[in-house]
């Protein structure tokens, strides 16, 4: 599980032209304006509600990581369906999209801004490889290192890096110059970004339901390092179950099965666990695919993660172009409720909400929920000024990446465990009950 890079709302873009969001930027913000002076930039307020939203999501991430194994409702859904944990990733992607519109509100030099976006995405991707590629062996081990032949190539930060880069490029290059006085004007101004989102959704749907998935095999290490081989029978098209879906097939073909996540979420399904919906021993009649690697942050599923980020962009545009609080909130609520309604309808007709596959219904449901939550936080924090009760969440939101690296990736517990008294088990972690 995990965390997420977060483009903060006060990030400056290439060329020094963008600053933190002006909460009352208004429709006039869409017109060309000279970059503000440093003194003016320093006075511009942050969008506090975005920091609070990010902080709440960080807290939810930590709760899910620590309590998900004990409370099924806080763990990821084993396959179809949604739990609280399944909202964390799309919430962060949505926040990245909103923040990008504020960071790239003015872009004096598009090429320079693009270079910086590419560099930031590469840094984030590489950080993800180190943190989630298998280099660290967890709080139970003082060893580290990873076999490059089996390094996990995709992960949470890698997915966010990809979504961030594509959304940033769209925000830098695909903006019209139409004046914005209504929601329809907003659609017209950013029609090319919306078109990209529709193309990605269409491409994902065609691939998910149109790719033929043949039979496949995999090996796992048994007792004594003996390799055990398993064969999975498929030969189908359009299957969205754990064994024969196109998402897994694309990852096995492009990335290689040795580079996928080795603790798949479907190991907690009724078919694969006696302790369903928790992890447990395999049932006697468990299907052959139960122990197969599957990456919940794979390539094809990341296509819809990009769409979530693009949806966040559109919500951020409302901040930039609408001056009044009421106009912003109304223009957030309408698409949020609409996405939720469409998602429920799609789920009802069989296009199930599924986080590992990142289905379209899942994308719309989580983006709609993110929009509603963001509108609520904005109303409480930025409209009515409820700052003191949310100060902790605001701080966590400003330091989200640091918290993720130190806490969610267990870097801090592993560092503490590195100092022990005579025996590695005699560390401070033993006394506080962490990792031992």
Automatic annotation (TrEMBL):
Sequence ranges assigned to domain Heparan-alpha-glucosaminide N-acetyltransferase catalytic in this UniProt record: 46-169
Region Disordered: start-end pairs: 1-43
Pfam families linked: HGSNAT_cat
Residues passing through the membrane, by range: 47-64, 84-105, 117-136, 156-174, 194-212, 299-320, 332-351, 357-381, 401-420
Keywords noted in UniProt: Membrane, Transmembrane, Transmembrane helix
InterPro entries: HGSNAT_cat
Keyword Transmembrane helix among record annotations: yes
Keyword presence, Membrane: yes
Protein name as it appears in the record: Heparan-alpha-glucosaminide N-acetyltransferase catalytic domain-containing protein
Organism whose genome encodes this protein: Urochloa decumbens
